[in-house]
Amino acid sequence: MAHLLIIEDDDLLRDGLSDLLRQTGHTVHSSADGLAAQTVLNEQAIDAVLLDLGLPKLDGLSLLRWIRQRFESLPVMILTARAGVEDRVEGLSEGADDYLTKPFNNAELSARVQALLRRSRLPAFGTGASAPPDATPGLQIDSQLPRAWVNGQATDLTQREWELLNLLHQRLNQVVSREDVAAAWQNDSAEPAASNALEVYIHRLRRKLSGSGLNIRNVRGLGYMLEPL
Ligand code: CA
Questions:
Q1: How far is the CA of 33 from the centre of ligand 1 (A)?
Q2: How confident is the model at residue 132 (pLDDT cuts 50, 70, 90)?
Q3: Which contiguous run of DSSP H or E holds residue 122?
């Protein structure tokens, strides 16, 4: 069983797809436009997306690009009209995993959704523990020395800034708690860690990351998260 999101502005088709995929045991969310879909994707853990390209408010290809920036390994199947060969090609080149041509038959649809989910569970598609090397094109961190390249510019970091940035980057899009930072800093006596030190380092890193396309978000009560802007 998986959590699926159907993004389709045709009410009949969307309801039909939802019913069918619910019958095969999946939990189905649905959106009738691109902006509503963004909200669902930000708030729910979705395993795979079925995406119509012609959508109001935010079109399917723009939404697909947004999905690829934010949820790199989320499987996406495009729903296209039979005549839409160019759409299909463009969708695949923008990172869709598969496409299905409307009208489709029910057996084909459920088989293709199963295949999509199966592929996404292979290790190569998994999110893993650390960010893939190309997940943050505006930021590369030196693995040996305390420095990073922000937008191609070499930027010196203090030891603590470097350790903190590594920790945040390894858990891109996940919350890093104060306890996690404390544990990572425990054996580092190069600089004293004052009670408000973490805020100070976060503030300095934010300034140094300016132009990288990344932001360190304060997740109230939980910690900090490095995420694409
Ligand atoms: Ca449509």
A1: 9
A2: low
A3: none
Distance 115 CA to ligand 1 centre (A): 24
Surrounding residues of ion ligand 1, Cβ less than 5 A: 9, 52, 54
CA of 59 to the centre of ligand 1 (A): 9
Residue spans of beta strands (DSSP E) within 45-190: 48-52, 76-81, 98-102, 139-141, 147-150, 153-156, 175-176
Q: What average pLDDT does the segment 158-175 reach?
A: 88
**Proportion of the chain above pLDDT 70, given as a percent:** 87
Distance 60 CA to ligand 1 centre (A): 9
8 Cα to the center of ligand 1, angstroms = 6
- The rounded Å distance from CA 51 to ligand 1 centre is 9
- CA–CA separation, 217 and 115 (whole Å): 36
Gap from CA of 101 to ligand 1 centroid (Å) = 13
Is the pTM above the cut of 0.90?
A: no
- Residue entry with tokens 């489709």: 104
Name the nearest CA neighbour of 213 among 96, 126, 134, 125. 134
pLDDT band at 64 (very low <50, low <70, confident <90, very high): very high
Residue 70 burial (CB < 10 Å; 0-12/13-18/19+)?
middle
Question: Are the CB atoms for 139 and 214 separated by under 8 Å?
Answer: yes
Ligand 1 mean position, distance from CA 39 (Å): 19
Cβ atoms of residues 175 and 222 within 8 Å: yes
Q: Which two tokens stand for residue 61?
A: 């290809």
End-to-end CA distance of the chain: 32
